[in-house]
Design goal:
- By secondary structure, the protein is α/β, with parallel strands linked by helices.
- It has one domain: TIM Barrel, CATH 3.20.20.210.
- The chain has twelve helices and twelve strands.
- Strands 3-7-8-9-10-11-12 form a seven-stranded parallel sheet. Strands 4-5-6 form a three-stranded antiparallel sheet. Strands 1-2 form a two-stranded antiparallel sheet.
- The radius of gyration is 19 Å and the shape is globular.
């Protein structure tokens, strides 16, 4: 089976002959592994069975000499300390929302990377990736503290901002899937959680975010494609809602905040998972034997379907190179 077929089988909760997998690294981890393996090309090609091509132009890792990167929405990100994402300087207020200039959702350059990947990796499962898709886009534009406050004290503005973002996202989805009907799914990035739970609480998530998310995911369903979402944190309370509004696969499936094996059993046949390999404990601090033992257990779970093996996030710079090497070896020769 090709990588595409393996992922499709996993999403349909069918047994697979080998676990589908995907491995991604932060800038620092990639540089460390390139040096460890004495291979400057390491990490320049997708690792595993999934290719997720971004169509929101954030360009992780890019920054000016002063450490600042300005994205296509006009948000300035301070990357002087964190070269991957950075900290945003908000630019949207209740006073300027009506006049805010949104990027062009239909511009050809938005889809160039996606187009190239589709041609280069025809046997892999392809996701059109909409980073900072809704809640994250809202707080990037407005500021995290201010947007959370808006959800309580100025809900009409919060909802107006979310609907403006939704309007933009729906146009991006339609533009991408019109151009490239061979895309397998759309991947949305939205961190709803902290290590302790849903950051705005389940009830407020349902009141403010769920209706807008449902419209966003339904557009993908209308095209006959799979819906993937990424949300870090302890957000298992949201899983029934995510299933209800059409999510097919949840990432990153953090073992630090949920029992991934019991959750996988609970949602068998209803929700697939992608991730699950600890990037906070196992890869930075685990012994080689511990890494191999956990990967063996995860592979056994993956063979049942409904699971794509992967680190629970982009591998961080403090992960041990020897543990990453084991990960590459075990999953790559599954």
């Amino acid at each position: 089976m090709t990588g595409k077929q393996l992922v499709q089988a996993a999403l349909e909760h069918r047994p697979v002959p080998r676990p589908p997998y995907s491995i991604s690294l932060t800038e620092r981890a990639q540089a460390k592994m390139a040096a460890y393996l004495n291979d400057d090309s390491f990490g320049t090609e997708p690792i595993g069975d999934i290719v997720a091509s971004p169509v929101i132009r954030i360009e992780y890792g890019i920054r000016d000499a002063d450490g600042i990167y300005t994205d296509e929405f006009g948000v300035q990100w301070d990357r002087s300390q964190d070269p991957d994402i950075g900290l945003p300087k908000p630019c949207v207020t209740p006073e300027n929302l009506d006049d805010f200039q949104w990027p062009d959702p239909d511009i050809d350059i938005r889809f160039e990377h996606l187009k190239a990947n589709l041609a280069k990796y025809p046997d892999k499962f392809h996701l059109m990736r909409i980073d900072f898709s809704l809640y994250e886009r809202a707080w990037a534009l407005r500021g995290l503290e201010d947007f959370l406050t808006d959800m309580v004290l100025n809900r009409s503005f919060a909802e107006a901002l979310l609907h403006r973002i939704l309007e933009f996202n729906l146009k991006v989805i339609d533009a991408g899937l019109t151009r490239f009907p061979e895309i397998d799914g759309v991947y949305f990035g939205d961190d709803f959680g902290t290590q302790r739970g849903v950051i705005m609480g389940e009830e407020r998530w349902c009141q403010v975010l769920k209706p807008v998310l449902a419209k966003q995911y339904q557009r993908v369903k209308d095209w006959g494609k799979k819906v993937f979402i990424h949300s870090c944190g302890a957000v298992a309370d949201l899983f029934p809602h995510l299933v209800q509004i059409g999510v097919d696969c949840f990432n990153p499936f953090q073992p630090e905040v949920m029992d991934i094996y019991s959750v996988k059993r609970e949602y068998a046949g209803r929700l697939a998972f992608w991730g699950g390999i600890s990037t906070q404990q196992l890869l930075p601090f685990g012994s080689p034997d511990e890494v191999r033992a956990e990967l063996k257990r995860l592979k056994e779970m993956a063979m049942e379907g409904g699971y794509i093996a992967a680190p629970a996030h982009d591998i961080p710079g403090d992960a041990k190179p020897e543990n990453i090497e084991i990960l590459l070896e075990v999953l790559g020769t599954a």
